[in-house]
Amino acid sequence: MTAADEVLHEERASARRLVADLRAELDGIVTDQEANPPDDEHDVEGSSVAYERARVAALLAHAERRLVDLDAAAERRTSGSGDRCGACGRPIGAERLAALPATQRCVACASAPSVRPLGGG
Ligand SMILES: [Zn+2]
Question: How far is ligand 1, taken at its centre, from the CA of residue 106, in Å?
Answer without folding.
Answer: 4
